[in-house]
Amino acid sequence: MTKMDAKKVGLVFGCFLALFHLVWSIAILITQSGVQKFIDWILGLHRIGMSFTIMPFHLMSAVLLVVATFVFGYIFGYAFAAIWNWQNKK
Prior knowledge:
The chain has helices spanning about 5-30, 30-45, 60-90. It contains three helices and no strands. It has one domain (about 5-90). Helices cover about 80% and strands about 0% of the residues. By secondary structure, it is mainly α.
């Protein structure tokens, strides 16, 4: 099997998660009530009756969310590639 570059896999996965959460934060900034309806709809599709409330947009929370998801995504992607390479070395 092909060897993965752990740093590149970490960057790709970290950027993907960060981008996803950036779009989520922008959606909350633009239309908080629309996001609330979307979450209610998704939960209803899964037959889940929970009460979630989308909180108002706060810039520092959004920045922290994007940075934290990038860091955790990078760590996860790096670890995945390192384990992949270790397993395929045998």
